[in-house]
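seq as requested:
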Amino acid sequence: MDHLQHFKKILDIAIKEGASDLIISVNHPPVIRITGQLVPLTNEKKFTADDTQNFAFGLMSDTQKEKFLKEKEIDFSYDFDGKGRFRVNIFYQRDCISLALRLIPTKIKTIEDLALPAVLHEFTNKSHGLILVTGASGQGKSTTLAAMVDEINHTKAVHIITIEDPIEYMYESDKAVVEQREVSTDTHSFANALRAVFRQNPDVIMVGEMRDLETISTAITAAETGHLVFATLHTNSAAQSIHRIIDVFPSEQQNQIRFQLAGSLLGVVSQRLVPKISGGFAPACEVMIANTAISNLIRENKTHEIPAVIETSLREGMISLNRSLSDLVRKKDISLKDSVDYSLNPAELKNLLR
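struct tokens:
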């Protein structure tokens, strides 16, 4: 079997087994991740350094190879014969090449399919403002964003532009016109693409990740000037997300940013995927909606008081992480032990569960 056939066979196995991830590294057989557990494909031979290099180079274009050899790591998406898409990261470790591939489902799931809070539908009905989806890597941020953006695609005649690194879910324009720009293929950076977006006449902008001051600043400006902006951050809670955004700016600009953010932020969804008792994962979400009380706390630099407002604003659709976790325990979706492990305030969670 030649190299090409060999790696196509392995990608096929990953898809067939319903894996979320595939790991290729030297001196190991291929390893897939199924519902959070790593499973080595013991029937496959261990990879040599030449094997991993051939596998990696087989996935890359000449431009990508050149970039990889120069920068020693690369992120891109790979369409596998129309059977599935992978988000690929290739990197060096101990002078050998390793690959981490994340399988991207071809069908975009709805808010209901994902068992996300129904209040997320309200965010898709807004005409302008900033919505953040936050959480650690691999906690389903891209999937939640895609569900909201695709809901708009199927219900509103608007122009949607996404800026992603790399493009993950593929949207099929329905009522909306959806255009997807990939960093390094279609644009040089998130900041460049966001600067140019104002001339592209969008109604909705999706920013894969807010990584730096310029991207954050431009995204807030876009939300203030009549665009609906969706973006992600690697933070664990709504309060932490607001703190992170303001902290990126030099101290003399922070006051102004607080005012801008207080005026443009619509809400923050912070999520983590908790292992279900029956297998698979359940999303536990903290949902903050930027009402008058929240906006005032942002303006007055009292972000530490945000969790208390979320806890007491259940009627407005806000959900604290602990409430989300306790609901999942009561429904017998997740174990008590896991709920405590995933909580940011285990003592309070135990009180809620009494």
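The chain has two domains: 3-104, 120-353.
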